Amino acid sequence: MTLKRKIQAGLLAIALLAVAAAGSLFWFNWWLRFGTTRIYPVCRASPVYLEFTEPLTPQANALFLKIMMRFNEGYVWIKDGQVIAMNWYWLFGEAELVQRTNYFLKELAALHGHDPKNYYYCSDLFRFGTPPNTGDYSVESYPSNFTRDTLEPLSFGASSERAGHFTPVGRFYQWLGQLTGQPE
């Protein structure tokens, strides 16, 4: 292969990688702004956070739904007995999710006749929120701080758009969403 052919092949590979990277970035921002996901209680299992996926007692699930809807801002809603939220809220709303889970755990502990001041771990959620004699429950890792910190700049301010702070990319997606009929 001649030098000219190697340069052309290299430039073609660079062009293909650039198109793939731009497409991935476009898709990620679309997913973040218009996609939804189910929200679970996010509890602390020191030093990480976990999403407590199941099973909750009907009483605990109803209390979790009530807590999540108490501060409904329009990007969290209840559908078929599940808490649904926008993907950007799930990925970048850790502080709010943990705070709401802490409210949930305090009310759940009080409901079971315990002092609600010291309950904020996954083990407390297991103790008060699962059916008795349940030896098996599911948790998933909540995205780490490193993951969120890495993805935040690639979102072009998606998490601040709820306050009306739109970057040019955010305004583009807002326009594109209106054009395609996506809910705001």
Structural write-up:
It is a single chain. The chain has 184 residues and is of the alpha+beta class. The chain is built from 7 helices and 6 strands. The chain has a 3-stranded antiparallel beta sheet. It has a 3-stranded antiparallel beta sheet with strand order 2-3-6. The chain is elongated and about 80 Å long.
Order of H and E elements? HEEEHEEHHHEHH
| Percent range for β-strand residues | 15-25%
Biggest sheet descriptor: 3 strands, antiparallel
Strand tally = 6
- The order of strands across the largest sheet is 1-5-4
Labels describing this entry:
184 residues; alpha+beta; 3-stranded antiparallel sheet; 7 helices; 15% strand; elongated
In short:
With 184 residues, this protein is an alpha+beta fold. 53% of the residues lie in helices and 15% in strands.
Describe the secondary structure blueprint for this structure.
Layout: H1 3-34, E1 36-39, E2 42-45, E3 48-54, H2 58-70, E4 76-79, E5 82-86, H3 87-92, H4 94-111, H5 122-129, E6 138-141, H6 145-151, H7 168-180
Antiparallel strand pairs: 1-5, 2-3, 3-6, 4-5
Helix pairs in contact: 2-4
